[in-house]
Fold this protein.
Amino acid sequence: MRKPDGRDADVVVIGAGVAGLACAADLLAAGVRVSLLEAADTPGGRVATDRVRGFTTDRGFQVLNTAYPQVKRRLKLRALRLRPFTPGVLVHTGDGLRRFTDPTRRLRDSRDLLPGRLAPARDLAALGVLSARDMLAPAARLRGRQDGTTLTALADAGFSPAFVEAFFRPFLSGVFLEDELETSARFFHLVWRSMLRGTACLPADGMGAIPAQLASALPGSVVRTATPVASLTPDGVLLADGADLAAAAVVVATGQSAAARLLPGLAVPRARTVTTLYHAAERSPLAEPTLVVDGGRRFLNTCVLTEVHPGYSVDGRALVSTSVLGAPGPADEAAVRVALGHVYGADTGSWEAVHRVTVRDALPAMTPPWPLSRSTRFSPGRYVCGDHRATGSLQGAMASGARAAREVLMDLRAGTRTRTQPRRGA
């Protein structure tokens, strides 16, 4: 219902992904009237979970890192019933699987870190120095470094090309969703820091439980699902059904492609595409909750999700998740199945193909120099937030949503839609 001031809300937020949910929560906490509009049937955006034939499948392989500041601030982690992955990864090499682990957490599993097994002594020493610096340095210092590519940063840190190819490239390809290591070095250092300080986990009900928890903390009248927005208007937004909503400010918290459509002139980065394949196996091909990467780069990563959370399967079969770059065709999927058999040492011919999901705006391409945070102001009364405005992570999305809320509040309290405007499309 339209209020006496002629507005339906003080602020309309478009998109109930984690960025929009964080933005709406902070605005509501400040006493602002908010309407949060979501085109899908449920909140979450890309952070979503589907139930397929009794299996719990996320929209692409995702994990929750407990070290993220926004995660610690906003989520009730105990309520998510988190289960951890094993610290570290298994790397498939010409000699089989080698375990790359954090010896400060699992010393008994660190024998592959002995010189000559996974890497020579020089690379292991460089790894120790890199890890100590990134883990102990204040985050502000890492953010303030001169930027370059991750590949250059690894060379500068003293790693040999052979070790980069054997470990960093196959592992980080699954983190950044690109295999050239062209991603911002500053972002790499922050990610490495979070991995050392936190634990990678999965919620019992899938990653979709995260936005569901954030949405449940908002008043019931705030979130409107199945409500796509057709366009922005001078006074607010026009819905796809022809209705209009008036508001003093509009925050576009959608993915980057939708944001560019709603805000003509908005500059957005290239997007990374990833496809995740889900297979069911009669028995688990790996009896531990550990991420596996392929030194041959035939896929990004794979894991047995039911080793992390047995409840991801209702019939006792193992659920295997495997991610690949881009959108593979049938022949590529068959090649991936063969590669999985090689890596796991299992007969994958009998595995049932359960589900496939391709995410086309999975991550922004964070090439240097990449601003780790940027203003959300676009034009008077118009704001844009999301991981493409910060960093490609849950932390980045929620932090961008929080920044949008701060800037909206600053402008509303100043009594004007916005005082200082960046260049349009910045």
Remarks:
- The chain has twelve helices and 20 strands.
